[in-house]
Amino acid sequence: SFNLVKSDVPDSLVLMHYQWRSSALYPDSLSEIEELKKYSWADLWPNVGACMSVSRSDAIRFGGFDEHKSFRGYLCGPYDLGWRLINAGIPERWHDESVAIWHFSHPDPPATYGQSFSLKMWREKRYPHINHHALKAVEAFSTGRLLPIDENLKIYELRMQNRQIDTEFERKYSCLTERTGFSKWKITYLYILFFFEPFIPVTKSIFSTYISHHLNKLIGPKKYEQVKSWLKSINGNKAN
């Protein structure tokens, strides 16, 4: 268990909370915490989907909660962000068991607790999961991914604003693309350009010599020298 002693708390932390669970539905009349004793509770267990505390700066730094469509429904939870923070080296701690979450049953599509089947809830639960943990969250944890697949636009803007770039030389590379990166057309253009790049100087030299020879014959040596002088004054370089 983890006791909240100030000297023990690192600057960055993924703080998880245990959870008590009951098969009873949430009562409408619950008003005092003492009334919880009337219900039957399963053994305390580390449900990563229950509750988690992280710093705002860490949440922004690693893209916040993933908005990918696979997280729809009620099988998602804070563990998506928490596991990505752990991948980045931020330590995980579980709060002392004396402070835990009390969780009543929610409507359950497969009628685990004798509830009626719900098509609406079944639609929420049909998204892929591993032991009731969203598939993409488990995949991120297992592969070491740090950022969400579909990052919230406002979180993205905050994260990018927090970058600290120390030179103008680097800064020009920091905003060349949109969120999705270079377009396919731009990448194709660069591939074509770099493929022909070794041949450009040779082609330019041959083409320049060819043009110079025929232009000299066409307009005469005197006017040709005038054209060369004019080109030199424009380009600041020696014209062929």
Describe the model.
The chain is built from nine helices and seven strands, in the order βββααββαββαααααα. The chain has helices at about 55-60, 80-85, 120-125, 135-145, 155-160, 170, 185-195, 200-220, 220-235; strands spanning about 15, 20-25, 50-55, 90-95, 100-105, 130, 135. The model has no long low-confidence stretch (mean pLDDT about 80). A hairpin with a 2-residue loop joins strand 6 and strand 7. About 40% of the residues lie in helices and about 10% in strands. It is α/β, with parallel strands linked by helices. The strands form three sheets. A three-stranded mixed β-sheet has the order 3-1-4, with helices on one face. The chain has a two-stranded parallel sheet with strand order 2-5.
**Gyration radius, rounded:** 32 Å
Order of helices and strands: EEEHHEEHEEHHHHHH
Placed side by side, the strands forming the largest sheet appear as: 3-1-4
The low-confidence parts are none
* Proportion of beta-strand residues: 5-15%
> How many beta strands in the DSSP annotation?
7
Instruction: Please report the distance between the alpha carbons of the first and last residues.
Output: 81 Å
Query: Would you tell me the structural class of the helices and strands?
Result: alpha/beta
Report helical residue fraction: 25-40%
How many helices in DSSP terms?
9
Report the sheet with the most strands, covering strand number, pairing sense and barrel closure.
3 strands, mixed
- Quick check: average pLDDT? 82
Shape descriptor = elongated
